[in-house]
Specification:
The protein is of the alpha/beta class. The chain contains 13 helices and 7 strands. The chain is globular, with a radius of gyration of 23 Å.
Length: 333
Amino acid sequence: MNVTLTDDSCAPAATHTVASHAIGQDAAASVASTLKALSDPLRLRMLSAIASDPRGESCVCDLAELADVSQPTVSHHLKVLKDVAVLTSERRGTWVWYRINPELRPAVTALLDSFAPAAVGPTHRMEYGGLEDVDDALTHLAASLSDVYPALSRDLVKAVVRESYTSLAKAARMKTHLLSLTEHFARQRLTDISRDRDTGLPQVLFVCVANAGRSQLAAALVNQRSGGRVIARSAGSTPATEIHPNVQPLLAEITGPDDEQQRFPKPLTDDAVRAADVVITMGCGDVCPIIPGVHYEDWAVGDPALASLDGVAAIRDDIAHRVDALLASLTNR
């Protein structure tokens, strides 16, 4: 029997094709079990508190302050998270300390830094056309920047401009300032590519996941407190669409309200890493390429993504103390 498909008809794919694209049953069951364990507001708050604790771990006595519940209730919720291997624990004397399972930290980071803010305040991104929609503008920008960086080939400048636009467009929610942001980002990248490490000022790169909070604060504090003696950049392994709302006013205090257009999440590039004398990671794991001659550090500071206003201010103060020590070491060399 011949079957005629209309526009509304569904032509099922071969069973083996569908199955090969879907997550396996065992893996699905495991993920579902973990997501079920996380589907409790108090457990998510506990997870956030542990993930953002500058010590890298939290004591059960600290977590008990998150809600007006009994100690056994707190212990129950923590046990649920341990049973699905999201948390590990260690008893020291009277108290038990909890930390994120290192193998699951990337997943926890994605949950707290990306999914949670999106769920709290959902946004609808505008659809972007291809580069042909802005081709003339990008070509003009590349030609202009080629005059600013004559030592670099025009093909390289053009490639950097288009790559910068594409990278920023992936996370942008609106087109309004995209070309302007592309110019800022491309200029920064071209400056990094052109940097003379022997004669240039010391340069520091701060890297976190979203480049929407702590790495932005750290770079701004270095640039403010160094008095021009040190240059700081920041980037994210998975940049957010915008800087965290609680962080924006603190950045405005540091850099001034007129510098707002310079403040936006930027993707991590090899150019930035190669240009840096010091790369400081802030909760992003091993995402930075290892470049000879570059010094690497990791700062275990809190994440302002879901912190309170007071918590964000405390994180800023913690970063400021670390920045002062960093500047002392760089300027005394």
